[in-house]
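Shift notes (night). Ran Enoyl-CoA hydratase/isomerase family protein while the centrifuge was going.
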Amino acid sequence: MAPSLEGYDNFKHFLISSPTEYVAHVETNRPEKLNAFIEDMWLELGQIFRKLSHDPSVRAVIFSAVGERAFTAGLDVQAAQQSGMLIPDGKSDGARAATRLRRHIREFQDSVSAIENCEKRMFNISNV
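Came back to this:
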């Protein structure tokens, strides 16, 4: 395994290492669920790529996933339903519930956009 990159060892769902100087390797690490994303993962993903974007010790990023079956299955729909975020809370009127949902979706989208906005050269390696 490549050495870890300093300051990136506190993420629960991602492994971040440095296979060679100036290169960060970010691996999604939830293979038992085909690397399907849950809420914490979306937020970590954004934090990681925003941090990498500003890290002077990184010039390129490899993004891949642990496991042999899938890079990612996308959203873990079962977990999303269980979190209750997709279900109206019954306490808010329709407009407030829609605003709450929109803000939540926007937070997820900002995390995904952090990959696109990362100022480093990106590579995606899949096992396909």
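The mean pLDDT is 86. The two ends are 21 Å apart (CA to CA).
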